[in-house]
Amino acid sequence: MHDAAGILLSLLVVFVGARVGEELAQRMRMPGVVGEILAGAVLGPSLLNWVSPDQVLNALAEIGVVFLLFAVGLETRLDDLKRVGVIAFLVGTLGVIVPFGGATVWAHVEGFVWSKSMFIAAAFVATSAGITARVLQDMRALQRREAHVILGAAVIDDILAMLLLGVVVSVQQDGTTNAAHLLAVIAEAVGFVLIVGWVGTRVARRRSNWLERPRMSMSALSIVLALCLGLAWLSTRFGLAAIIGAFLAGLIASETEQRQQLEHHMKPLLTLLTPFFFVMTGVKLDVGVFAQPDALLMLVVATVLAVLTKLLGAYLGALKLGQRSALAVGMGMVPRGEVGVVVASLGLAAGVFNAKVYAVIVAMSLLTSILTPPLLGWLLAWSQQPQDDPQPT
Amino acid sequence: MHDAAGILLSLLVVFVGARVGEELAQRMRMPGVVGEILAGAVLGPSLLNWVSPDQVLNALAEIGVVFLLFAVGLETRLDDLKRVGVIAFLVGTLGVIVPFGGATVWAHVEGFVWSKSMFIAAAFVATSAGITARVLQDMRALQRREAHVILGAAVIDDILAMLLLGVVVSVQQDGTTNAAHLLAVIAEAVGFVLIVGWVGTRVARRRSNWLERPRMSMSALSIVLALCLGLAWLSTRFGLAAIIGAFLAGLIASETEQRQQLEHHMKPLLTLLTPFFFVMTGVKLDVGVFAQPDALLMLVVATVLAVLTKLLGAYLGALKLGQRSALAVGMGMVPRGEVGVVVASLGLAAGVFNAKVYAVIVAMSLLTSILTPPLLGWLLAWSQQPQDDPQPT
Question: To the nearest 10°, the Cα dihedral for A212, A217, A218, A220?
Fold first, then answer.
C-alpha cells in the first residue's frame, strides 16, 4: 500500500500547491492560472524539487487539459457567431493572421526551420478570453460594445486557432516540404475538424433528448465525457492534437439542450483536474533558463511581439468603433493564458521545442495575461472619456 | 504524443465499459455497481484482455475509491445517529458483530491464520445501504418504520465497519500476536479515527463559513478535496487504509453548512472516477477461478454465510418491530456492494488475499447485492399484510 500512499501524497502536494498559487495570484490581482503555473515552477525540480513529472501526474495533466478544452468548446456558442457581426469577425480573423505571420517570421529569423517556426507561432495566436471577461466584469463593462466585440471575436479566434494548431501539428509530424503532400495533410486536418464539427453539431441540435434516455445516473454527462475522450483519441489518429477533438466534442455538447447543466457539472471536474495540467506545466519549466541573458532577451522580444501583433491585428479589425475603442478591443485580445501554454506543452511533448523555447513561450503567455488587466482597465476608462480626435466612419 | 493517445484510449475503454455495464445491469433490475465490475471482468485479462492493470489506471482507481468513501462519509449524518434510537443502534451493532464473528471462525476453519481470517471477515461486515435505499424508494416505502431503522443502522454499520477495517489492517501489517502490542495497534487505529473524527466535526460545525472566504473559484470544494486527500494520506501513515481518512474527511465535510452543495459537486467527480475503481476491481478478477469446484463451493458457502449472519444479527436487533418487520430489516442490511469490494481490493493490494479469496469475496459482495432487491421487496410486502402470529413487545 506504499504506492497508494505515494500517489495520494503527490496528488495532495500538486492540488494544494495549485489552489494556494491561484489564491495568492488573485489576491495580487493577477489571473489564477499564473499562480498555478508559478506554483508548479516552485514545486518542480528547478526550485524545491518536491514534485517531478511521472506517469501518473502526466496522465492527470493530460486529462485535465482535454477537459479544459472540452469546457472551452462547451462555452463557445456557434449561434453567437452569427450575431457578432462584421467587426468581431474582422477582429478575430486579423487577430489571428497578424500574430501568426509575425511570429512565424520572427521564429524563422531566430534560426528555426519553417515548419517549427509555424508551430512556435501557433502559441502566439489564441486569445484567452477568460481573463478579459473577468476584467470587463470587474469594471461593469460587459454591456459595452467593445465587450461584445471582444467576446464575439474570441469565439472566432478559438476556432481559427484550433484549426491552425491542427495544421501545424500535422505538418510538423509529417516533416514534409512537398507542396502537394503538405496540402493533403492540411486538407485532412481541416476536413476532420469541419466534418466532425458540422455533423456533430447538427446531430446534437436535432436529437439531444436521447442524452437523458439511459437509466444510469448522470447519463448526459457520461455520454458527453465519452464523446470527449473518444474524439480526443480519434483526433490523435488523424495526426491532430487530442485537445482539438476535445474542443470539437465541447462544441457539439454546447448545441444540446443540456448545455447549461453540463457546464455546471464540468466545474467540479475542472476544479480537480486542470490544476494538474497547469502545475505540471510549471514543473517542467526550467526557470534557470532565464539566468542566460539571451533567453531573457528572447522572452522580452517574444512578449513585445505577442502584444503588438495581436494589438495591431485586432485594432485594424475594430477601427470602425473609433481609435480609442479599437485600442481597448485590441488590448482585450492580448492575453494568451492557457491556450498558449497548451501549445507550448504540446511542442515540448513532441520534441519540437527545447527547454529554452518552452520556457520562453510559457513565460510569454503568463506575461501577456499579467499585463492585460491593468492596461485594459486603463484603456477602457480612457475610451469612455469625451474624444477630440476625429473618428473614422 | 503516442503516450497521450494510449492513455486516452484506455480511459475511453474503461469509462464506456463501466457506463454500458451499469446501464445493462439497471435494465436487468440489478445494482449498477454489479454491471461495472462485470464489465471489468469482461474487459480484463481473463476474458477479452482489452484492459490490464497499469500504473495510471490503478492510480485513477485509487482516486476513485478515495472519493467514493469521502462521498459515503459526506452522506452520513451524525445527527441522524441521535434520532434513530435504540433499535437502529442494536441492528447496526449486532449486524456487525454476528457477521464478523461468524466469518472469522469460518475463514479460520478454511485454514487461514487468525489475523488473515479477521481481514477476510471485515469484508463481510459493511452494509451498502445504497442498494436498499433504492429498493425502498422504488416500493415507496421510505416513510415506513423499517426504512428508518435500516437507514439509521446503516450509518452505525458504516462507522463500525471503518473502525474494524482500521484495526484489521493495522493488525495484519504488524503481523503481531503479542497481546500488549496488539492492543497498542488497535488503540492507535481507534484513537486516530475517534480523535480526527471528533475534533474535525466539531471544528467544521462551528466555523465552516471560512470555506467560502478564499477568492479562488469553488473554494469550499477545493478545501474539502484537499482535506480528503490529506486525511487519506495521513491515515496510511497511521497504518490505516487510505479510505478511512477519506471517510473521516467526508464525515467532517458533512457537518459544514455547504454540505448539500458539496454533495452536488461530488456527483460529477464520482461519475468520472468511481468507474475506474469498479472496472479495475473486475479487471483483477480471475473468473477462471470459478472453474474449480472448490472455489465455487467456497463462494456458495461464503454467500450463504454473509446473508445468514447479517440477517440473524439485524433480525435480533429489530425484533421489537415484530418478526416479519425484523426479517425485512435484516434483509435490508444484507447487501455488501462497494464496501465489501473495497476490502477485497485492499486485501489483494496488501498481498493478504490470493486470487481465489479475492474472487470469492468480490463475487460474494456482488451476489448479496443481486439477491437483496427481489427478496427485500417480497419481505416488505409480506410484513405489511395482516399478521396472525403473536408479536413480541
Answer: -30
Residues of chain A with Cβ-Cβ distance to B280 below 8 Å are: none
Please give the C-alpha separations between residue A283 and each of A47, A62, A251, A359, B355, in angstroms, as whole numbers.
9, 14, 31, 11, 40
Give kind and range of the element (H or E) at residue A292: none
**Which of A30, A74, A229, A342 should we substitute to test contact with B (largest number of B Cβ atoms within 10 Å)?**
A229
Instruction: Determine whether the interchain pair A226/B11 forms a contact, defined as Cβ–Cβ distance below 8 Å.
Output: no
Q: Does A351 touch chain B (CB under 8 A)?
A: no
Which chain A residue has the Cα nearest residue B7? A59
Q: Do A271 and B27 touch (CB under 8 A)?
A: no
Tens-digit pLDDT profile for chain B (393 aa)? 347 788 999 999 999 999 999 999 888 877 788 899 899 999 999 899 999 888 999 999 999 989 988 988 888 777 766 666 789 889 999 999 999 999 999 999 999 988 889 999 999 998 877 677 777 777 777 778 888 888 788 878 877 887 888 788 777 766 655 667 767 777 877 788 889 888 888 888 877 677 777 878 788 999 999 999 999 999 888 877 788 889 889 989 998 888 899 999 999 999 999 999 889 988 988 888 899 999 999 999 999 999 999 999 999 999 998 999 999 999 999 988 777 888 888 888 888 888 899 999 999 988 888 888 888 888 888 877 765 555 554
Residue of A nearest to B28 (CA): A215
Fold held by B2-384: Na+/H+ antiporter like fold (1.20.1530)
Residue A306: count other Cβ atoms within 10 Å of its Cβ.
27
- Determine whether the interchain pair B232/A268 forms a contact, defined as Cβ–Cβ distance below 8 Å: no
Spatial distance between the Cα atoms of B129 and B110, rounded to a whole number of angstroms: 29
Window 109-148 of A: residues touching B by CB (8 A cutoff) are none
Grid look-up 471536474 returns A269
Separation CA A250–CA A202 (nearest Å): 13
Can you tell me the ipTM of this complex?
Answer: 0.83
Q: For chain A, what are the domain ranges?
A: 2-384
Min Cα distance A271 → chain B (Å) is: 7
CA distance B119 to chain A (A): 15
